[in-house]
């Protein structure tokens, strides 16, 4: 097949595309022929190397049709809907369970840290408030079991440990929230891109 025959066949096969798209594709293939002729190839060898005009036209129509569809509002809506549905299913199946477990673990750690802090404060305040508490609550003295000074400083130590645990939980919670926001932003970028 000569260059003229090839280009005419390609032009026939490209019917249905806009004049601009058809002209661009034909110009590209004319350039292929020019380059091949400059390197000493025959027109028939170049035509054979390029492939069938019908296959080229079919691929071009498919590619241009897909690009046009992506550029239309309907194409964007369909693509965003499919991305959204896919991510919704992925998140529902894979992400929600472990995330709920992490939230529960975080809540448990907060409960533990706060309870350590409150019990330390309670033990510290018990020693000076013991005489007042005896008025309302009948209880034995703690002096026989443990000296009051040990209870007082032990309470301070436990309260300090609880305060450190709460500070650590603040950092852990901040990290968890940042990771959650980053994941949500990444998901949103996937849906909207």
Describe it for me?
The chain has 193 residues and is mostly helical. The protein has two domains: 3-71; 76-192. The protein is 87% helix and 0% strand. It contains six helices and no strands. It has helices spanning 3-13, 19-38, 43-50, 53-71, 73-136, 148-192. It is rod-shaped. The relative contact order is 0.07.
Please provide a brief summary of the model.
The protein is an all-alpha fold. The chain has helices spanning 3-13, 19-38, 43-50, 53-71, 73-136, 148-192.
Percent range for helical residues? over 70%
**What average pLDDT do the residues reach?**
83
Dominant shape:
rod-shaped
Number of helices: 6
List SSEs in N-to-C order. Answer: HHHHHH
Number of domain modules = 2
The helix-and-strand class reads mainly alpha
Taking the alpha carbons of the first and last residues, their distance comes to 44 Å
Reported for the largest beta sheet, the result is:
none
What amount of the residues lies in strands? Answer: under 5%
Please report the total strand number as a whole number.
0
């Amino acid at each position: 097949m000569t260059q003229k025959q090839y280009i005419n066949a390609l032009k026939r096969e490209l019917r249905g595309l806009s004049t601009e798209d058809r002209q661009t594709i034909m110009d590209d293939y004319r350039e292929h022929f020019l380059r091949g002729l400059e390197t000493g190839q025959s027109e028939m060898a170049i035509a054979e190397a390029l492939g069938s005009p019908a296959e080229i036209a079919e691929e071009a129509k498919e590619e241009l049709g897909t690009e046009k569809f992506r550029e239309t509002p309907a194409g964007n809506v369909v693509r965003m809907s499919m991305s959204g549905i896919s991510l919704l299913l992925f998140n529902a199946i894979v992400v929600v369970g472990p995330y709920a477990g992490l939230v529960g673990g975080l809540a448990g750690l907060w409960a533990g840290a706060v309870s350590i802090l409150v019990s330390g404060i309670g033990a510290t305040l018990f020693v000076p408030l013991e005489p007042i508490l005896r008025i309302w609550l009948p209880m034995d003295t703690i002096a026989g079991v443990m000296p009051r000074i040990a209870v007082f400083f032990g309470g301070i130590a436990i309260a300090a440990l609880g305060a450190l645990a709460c500070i650590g939980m603040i950092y852990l919670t901040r990290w968890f929230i940042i990771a959650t926001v980053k994941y949500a932003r990444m998901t949103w970028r996937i849906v909207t891109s």
